[in-house]
Write a structure and sequence with these properties.
Belongs to the EamA transporter family. The protein is an all-alpha fold. The chain has one domain. Helix content is 79%, strand content 0%. Helix 2 packs antiparallel against helix 9 and helix 4 packs across helix 8. The longest helix has 28 residues. The radius of gyration is 19 Å and the shape is globular. The protein starts with a helix and ends in a 9-residue tail after the last helix.
């Protein structure tokens, strides 16, 4: 099997595994906050000892060690607010809004990195915003009746955009295993204190909930992000980001089958415009002119 086939297969499998996560959270077997902790802690319990045992724990400098840990804190914040958004709305809507992250990447690149996006980026922004209005309903925007789930889902996309920018920079100098080990450990410690602060229950869950925690930690986090990290290491970031958009579609299909979520024509039209808008930001040739 050639290297390019391995990278593409890793990306495909990683997306499938990540797409299962919103379905598990929407089942509401536990709170979004404690689910985020067990997702990261279970992955860390496997990944950190493996990195130590195999000697794959070294980074090039303190700077990249701290950046790896920072990525963990950002990612933990991302999945926490995303979990709450999923449980407060639908798995489909929360996933679509979170997938606005590539647009935030472009905006942050312009503001903080002084990288001027191509004209296609702004075309994509307009399409995505129109899709957002259709998805949520224009009356929400007219009346400014945004609920907490909407705000948290958008915030999740902002966190993921930050994670994507920092992790891409870090992975240029750090291998996947040490990066994942330190970021996952940092996320686990952060979420541990956050759960203690809000008085979450760590034990007393039923077998179904513990099974869900294991799937989230071993498959949705450990396996999925090792695969995606491998892809990010060997593919252009634009291709990885564009491919990740399919997560929203896979999650929507799974939600219909396992959660009996009702997908309306309005949601389909809005979701398609959002995905089309994000896809337009990665097109090399100008769409107009």
């Amino acid at each position: 099997m050639t290297q390019i086939v391995k990278v593409r297969l890793a990306l495909f499998l990683g997306i499938i595994l990540v797409s299962v996560f919103p379905i598990l959270i929407k089942m509401e077997l536990a709170s979004g906050l404690i689910s985020a902790f067990y997702r990261m802690a279970i992955a860390a319990c496997i990944l950190v000892p493996y990195a130590l045992f195999t000697g794959q724990y070294k980074v090039t400098s303190i700077k990249y060690f701290l950046l790896s840990c920072l990525c963990g804190l950002i990612f933990a914040s991302d999945i926490t607010v995303w979990n709450i958004a999923i449980q407060s709305s639908t798995a489909t809507q929360a996933t679509l809004l979170t997938n606005l992250s590539p647009l935030w990447v472009g905006i942050f690149s312009l503001v903080f990195l002084k990288i001027r996006p191509a004209s296609n980026f702004w075309v994509g922004v307009v399409l995505a915003l129109i899709g957002l209005v259709i998805l949520i309903g224009y009356t929400v925007f007219i009346n400014l009746s945004f609920d907490m789930a909407f705000g948290l889902a958008v915030l999740s996309g902002i966190f993921y955009a930050c994670y994507f920018l920092v992790s891409k920079y870090t992975l240029e100098k750090v291998e996947v295993i040490p990066f994942m080990a330190y970021s996952t450990l940092a996320a686990s410690v952060y979420l541990l204190f956050l759960n203690i602060r809000f008085g979450e229950q760590f034990f007393g869950y039923n077998t179904q909930a513990w099974s869900s925690f294991l799937v989230q930690g071993l498959l949705c986090q450990l396996a999925a992000w090792l695969l995606l990290g491998f892809s990010m290491k060997h593919m252009r970031p634009t291709r990885v980001s564009l491919s990740m958009l399919s997560q929203a579609l896979v999650t929507a299909l799974l939600a219909v089958v396992f959660l009996d979520e009702h997908i309306t024509l309005q949601m389909v039209m809005g979701g398609c415009l959002i995905l089309l808008g994000i896809a337009a930001t990665f097109k090399k040739k100008p769409i107009f002119g």
